[in-house]
Fold:
Amino acid sequence: MDTAIKEIPGGVTAPAGFRASGIHAGLRKNKSRRDLALIVADCRCAAAGVFTTNKVYAAPVGVTREHIADGYAQAIICNSGNANACTVDGFEKANLTCKALSEHLGIKEEDIIVASTGVIGLPLPVEIIISAIPELAEQLAYGEMASYAAANAIMTTDTRPKEFACEFTLGGKKVKIGAICKGSGMIEPNMATMLGFITTDAGIEPAPLREALRSVVADTFNMVSVDGDTSTNDMVIILASGMANNAAITAPEGEDYETFRAALLQICTNMAKAIAADGEGATKLLECTVRNYYDKEGAKKLAKSVIKSPLVKTAMFGADANWGRIICALGYAGVEFDPYKVDLKFKSKAGEIDVCKNGCAIEVDEEKAKEILSCDYIYIDVDCKCGKASATAWGCDLSYEYVRINGDYRS
Amino acid sequence: MDTAIKEIPGGVTAPAGFRASGIHAGLRKNKSRRDLALIVADCRCAAAGVFTTNKVYAAPVGVTREHIADGYAQAIICNSGNANACTVDGFEKANLTCKALSEHLGIKEEDIIVASTGVIGLPLPVEIIISAIPELAEQLAYGEMASYAAANAIMTTDTRPKEFACEFTLGGKKVKIGAICKGSGMIEPNMATMLGFITTDAGIEPAPLREALRSVVADTFNMVSVDGDTSTNDMVIILASGMANNAAITAPEGEDYETFRAALLQICTNMAKAIAADGEGATKLLECTVRNYYDKEGAKKLAKSVIKSPLVKTAMFGADANWGRIICALGYAGVEFDPYKVDLKFKSKAGEIDVCKNGCAIEVDEEKAKEILSCDYIYIDVDCKCGKASATAWGCDLSYEYVRINGDYRS
Structure:
């Protein structure tokens, strides 16, 4: 049996049965920037979503939660440039968007997923969206250019569109998963704190689809931190068209389910890393793996504490092997551990270097450390030497550019 | 009865019975920077301390915890330039420092408080400290110049020394409290995350002194955040000489205790604000008050969540009235609240402006908002309209300078 998961191009339009589009509707002043995206399946799909845990959630999050509750959906519409959060008429406008798209495409309102990203507290100019729907639908297409347009349209301060797809075999059938996502600011590991739209042509029922998404998000999106802020708007949605004609997965167990979950994990890991690497102002992707800890939950807390520390992030920006800040961040993670057992190591494509043994300083070749930390992908390896569980978290360095971007985001 | 608390000069040497000194011992390369401080009481004092909650705590924190456990101490020695944390011989060296000072001053080792601040993981050159003790003791003096020297010697990336003192009446006697502190980096509200040394000539027994310090720290130092990092080294210590000859306070209750606690609260509030205002790279002091919430603990969590948000901090740096980030930070504070009841207001010496009513956008004069947010002391007022409890937290904006300082701290 072929269990390989092969990366392929095509984003959300890679799986069979999905069209996409992305246009400039006019929510942004800059006419060269797309601001409205649409993904439409050829048939009604099994669907699942994970949403922000913020008590203040945007109107589209509320509307989408209701629409996806039955486990089915067929289209995703998403605007950038305005979060449709904290305004009196947000729910009404999110519903108006669904209604207009429903009428135009002949899809039930309840099968439409609506999402927004951008500034909080500005009234959504919904008339711009509604009047752009005909053109948005007109542009719908299969193929990678369409996914690329949609991936562009959901960007905010992202510096590049983020698309992933893979191909694998499920019960003898070729199956694909595709995805687009955006991240950049307000990325925090308490939830799926960004926008991620995933498509697949796998046949899988809503219940196992939901469980696969939930469990994969916990190890990927929830292990990313850019700045510790959990957004009001974020969601990860998956639609499964079943058009690969595999024998449908009906429960969250068994070989097919595990194969599907492994492929979804790979796609979501790639998205998580891409979001971290493109964090606002980021110059480096940081990956912290905590190994040999008592349990996985604790290992996750330790890894996230390191990734979130502003002092670690600025040290990495400066390529400064100031490992004391790492052990310090482990110390306030809120879980038990013995500092006098911890070994720390930095790795990158330039090599690796031990910087701390049993919680204490060892002699470090600072030149070598500088060289390793000057690469754009840094691994921080933490060996707790007290158990067998491990966890990985992703983040980015903290640069001047983060301050510049966020000091004047609205202007 | 005169209940006024009057601010006075003099720092830790303001209260009767305290001498101080601060010299350049040689821990820092820059000879114009002091790096060793000493505070000595004329008699054995009632003493209390609050320490970092970090699981990784520096050797001097461990030694001091033991020395203060009996509720008495007489001298405080503190070096900057080296944290004496995460090194194999840290405890031994902290004990050697106490031993040398004990022999030189004729004070019991167990009555000596030892503290360090600086880089983690570098072996402490304890021989430099030991050989500097004679000069450090020689320089001991009463009077404000001595406090100023000590306040200078404990600085790391602080831009200015921090000293406070006040005078009030306790049972007909004039009583004083004095303090020096340092903050700047690794300031997080989980504990007394900085160094604060407080002296008083009040007569107060160890038990009520400990309770007063504990309760005041919870509302002051623990409500400050610069960057969310809890240091390995931080402590707040108070020594009470009893030389004001008031009738000693023997329990954490009664009029005298409340008067003493109020004065200590004022001193610690001033220190907390000074630490926030001098946060690494800070250009503005931020004060967030959450009002009319169900309970105080929840109000504290909400206020701290706002103060800690990197997106709020950068918006304040940019004088951008992006209040959506404030309501977003309230939303992930981890406590229940109704976003659709929240009113938000910005205040400064340039005026005040409402920016959000009942969780929703209102029309805002952006020019006026910019003017208000361009001042160096910004009040963020959050009215939850659901209860009667309130809490205040302090922080600072996040600037380019924070990144510069921390990108290359060790060089």
